[in-house]
Amino acid sequence: MNTQSQGFEAVFGRAPEGQAAAPGRVNLLGEHTDYQGGFVLPTAIPQHTTVTVARNGTGQHRVYAADLDRQAGFAVSGADMAELPEFARYVAGALTLGGAREGLDVHVHSDVPMGAGLSSSAALEVAVLRALRGLGVYGGDDVALALAAQRVEHEFVGVLCGVMDQMASSLADAQHMLLLDTRSLDRRVLPLPAGAEVLVVDSGVPRTLAGSGYNTRRAEVEEAARLLGVPELRDVQDVAAVEELPLPLRARARHVVTENARVLQAVEADAAGFGALMNASHRSLRDDYEVSHPQVDALVAALQALPDVFGARMTGAGFGGALVALVRTGTAASVGAAAIQAVGGQGQVVVPAQT
């Protein structure tokens, strides 16, 4: 029986006890700075991951991913991560850190694109923890929940991510930007620049964080900070200081230092100024951090050439995935379609959501 389009009751044979959802996110500025204590500026996207749960009275958790039409089961007492499919590792980690001590049936449905750099994993982690909170199993507030979700990535999936994705999924909304200091976790909710809206395009080039250069980049900037004698590159105020480093550490550190500065400048920028900072961010990610992809670069260039676009860049960890643009209000759908046509039809508009 094909259960792909079926809900919780069809899969597990009884009614659920609770449900929770969490959004994906797109980062407007501040890429690859959160694991160096830096500043980030994400916003939530309209797409969500929804988790429906019920206790099952056994010592086993059962998970069904509707969008993959896959099931997995593992003991409440602990699971061998190597034996679980990737989607189930996120759920297993969240259930463990969320304090689930009795078996749960978990149904997952998501319209957050996977492999596009829009934090489908963070949305899943946050949604599971929110569902546990709804059952009275987990008691953490929104910040504690985000930190627990980050631990899932570190301890159960093996991705040494910063905290931006989980904080954005837990705290952001799709109408505002979240200015986040990832060291102190101080944050402010800010409006988008006047006269502008967000466009997100999936390049169609999938990427996986654990199998990409993400952990390598993190190790490189940690070594750069060590050589500069600072706890994190967040503490470097003058970009000239990184020029004494050997390559590629010099280029990696230059990106982080200049990207932090761009986020702080963007807070007071109008749409044109914000867009210019996005364009500069893409150049830095492409040339200094080397995490872009030719197909992403082509889409970014196509967007930047259009008159209604203030600025555009890759977003997320890179090596494929999505790109984000700030465009004139009311033009996002048409601008996205024009850019995709300009590169031969490769790519898909994610925001505004397609109906």
TrEMBL record:
<keyword id="KW-0119">Carbohydrate metabolism</keyword>
<feature type="domain" description="GHMP kinase C-terminal">
    <location>
        <begin position="268"/>
        <end position="342"/>
    </location>
</feature>
<protein>
    <recommendedName>
        <fullName>Galactokinase</fullName>
        <ecNumber>2.7.1.6</ecNumber>
    </recommendedName>
</protein>
<dbReference type="InterPro" id="IPR013750">
    <property type="entry name" value="GHMP_kinase_C_dom"/>
</dbReference>
<comment type="similarity">
    <text>Belongs to the GHMP kinase family. GalK subfamily.</text>
</comment>
<keyword id="KW-0547">Nucleotide-binding</keyword>
<dbReference type="InterPro" id="IPR014721">
    <property type="entry name" value="Ribsml_uS5_D2-typ_fold_subgr"/>
</dbReference>
<dbReference type="Pfam" id="PF00288">
    <property type="entry name" value="GHMP_kinases_N"/>
</dbReference>
<keyword id="KW-0808">Transferase</keyword>
<dbReference type="InterPro" id="IPR019539">
    <property type="entry name" value="GalKase_N"/>
</dbReference>
<feature type="domain" description="Galactokinase N-terminal">
    <location>
        <begin position="7"/>
        <end position="55"/>
    </location>
</feature>
<dbReference type="GO" id="GO:0004335">
    <property type="term" value="F:galactokinase activity"/>
</dbReference>
<feature type="domain" description="GHMP kinase N-terminal">
    <location>
        <begin position="97"/>
        <end position="171"/>
    </location>
</feature>
<dbReference type="InterPro" id="IPR006206">
    <property type="entry name" value="Mevalonate/galactokinase"/>
</dbReference>
<dbReference type="InterPro" id="IPR020568">
    <property type="entry name" value="Ribosomal_Su5_D2-typ_SF"/>
</dbReference>
<keyword id="KW-0418">Kinase</keyword>
<dbReference type="InterPro" id="IPR006203">
    <property type="entry name" value="GHMP_knse_ATP-bd_CS"/>
</dbReference>
<keyword id="KW-0299">Galactose metabolism</keyword>
<dbReference type="InterPro" id="IPR036554">
    <property type="entry name" value="GHMP_kinase_C_sf"/>
</dbReference>
<dbReference type="InterPro" id="IPR000705">
    <property type="entry name" value="Galactokinase"/>
</dbReference>
<keyword id="KW-0067">ATP-binding</keyword>
<dbReference type="Pfam" id="PF10509">
    <property type="entry name" value="GalKase_gal_bdg"/>
</dbReference>
<dbReference type="InterPro" id="IPR006204">
    <property type="entry name" value="GHMP_kinase_N_dom"/>
</dbReference>
<dbReference type="Pfam" id="PF08544">
    <property type="entry name" value="GHMP_kinases_C"/>
</dbReference>
